[in-house]
Every structure is written in C-alpha cells, then in structure tokens.
Amino acid sequence: MYIDLLIKIKNAQNAGKKTLKVSHTKGDQAVLNVLESSGFLKKSEVKGRGVKKVVEINLNPERPIQGVKLISRPSLRRYAGYGDFRRVKGGRGILIVSTSKGILSGEAARREKVGGEMLAEVW
C-alpha cells in the first residue's frame, strides 16, 4: 500500500541509503511515477517477473523526502474537487491524488480538471 511505501522511502533516505527495493504493485508504481516526476526520486525500475516482481528505487539525495502527511485513510476517506487542492508547504511539496485518470500530483489533477481522493502530502 502507498502509505507503507512512502514511509519506507523516507526512512531509507534518513538512513543515507542510495537505493531501495520494495515489492511491486500497480498502485505503488503510480505513486512512484508521481514522486519521480516531482524530483523526489531519481528513477524507479521494475525487476523480475510474475509474482516475484520488485521495484528498485534510486533515491535523490538532493531532494530528500522530509515529511509525509497521510490525508485519506481506510477509516476516513477525504475527497475534493480540483479547485480545492491546495499548495503543500508553499509549493515545496506535492499532494498525491487518486483520480479517475489514475494517481496524479495535485497540480496535474488541477491541470486536467479532475477531483478525487487526496491520499497524502509529501514535502
């Protein structure tokens, strides 16, 4: 699940790791694509096949993840329209949103004019 993925990445960067391997899921891959396009990660690459797929993540030491705030959780889902997505930490962070067009950053969802479930803030 994306919550575990974000915390693993943050902890690996705090420990000074350069790479991280996690199990592959489609949802996690979509979150990794958002983090990669925002500059928090250098590269993520799927390795293996079948049930044994893993994702090797190359972390970006120049822009480490300093904090993660989980907005929506299984017991309390948070939804918003595209006009309600706010900037995170004055533009230094990103909002991760699950929309009908896939998992996008808050800014990309605003551009596409789609709302959805606000998953997490990353800065």
Automatic annotation (TrEMBL):
Keywords: Ribonucleoprotein, Ribosomal protein. GO terms for molecular function: structural constituent of ribosome. SUPFAM superfamilies: Ribosomal protein S8. InterPro entries: Ribosomal_uS8, Ribosomal_uS8_CS, Ribosomal_uS8_sf. PANTHER family: 40S RIBOSOMAL PROTEIN S15A. Belongs to the universal ribosomal protein uS8 family. This is Small ribosomal subunit protein uS8. It comes from Candidatus Jorgensenbacteria bacterium GWC1_48_12. The lineage of its organism: Bacteria, Candidatus Joergenseniibacteriota.
